[in-house]
Amino acid sequence: MSLPEAEGADLNGEDVGESVMRMGLLWTESQETTCKNS
């Protein structure tokens, strides 16, 4: 996953880590929900 240089310059490591962590949590929640429903 590569960002355009303009966007990359605006983001610091913490912001990237937070968004990645948030996406990971959402993904985990959706996986758990799918398992419970099936």
Task: List key phrases describing it.
38 residues, mainly alpha
Q: What is the gist of this entry?
A:
Helices cover 82% and strands 0% of the residues. With 38 residues, it is mostly helical.
Give the C-alpha Rg.
14 Å
Structural class: mainly alpha
Mean pLDDT: 73
State which percent range the strand residues make up. Answer: under 5%
3D shape: rod-shaped
End-to-end CA span: 32 Å
| Count of individual helical segments | 2
Most strands sheet:
none
Instruction: Give, in order, the helices and strands.
Output: HH
Helix content: over 70%
Low-confidence stretches: none
Quick one: how many beta strands? 0
Q: How would you describe the overall organization of this protein?
A:
The structure is a single chain. The protein is built from two helices and no strands. The termini are far apart. The relative contact order is 0.10. Helices cover 82% and strands 0% of the residues. The mean pLDDT is 73.
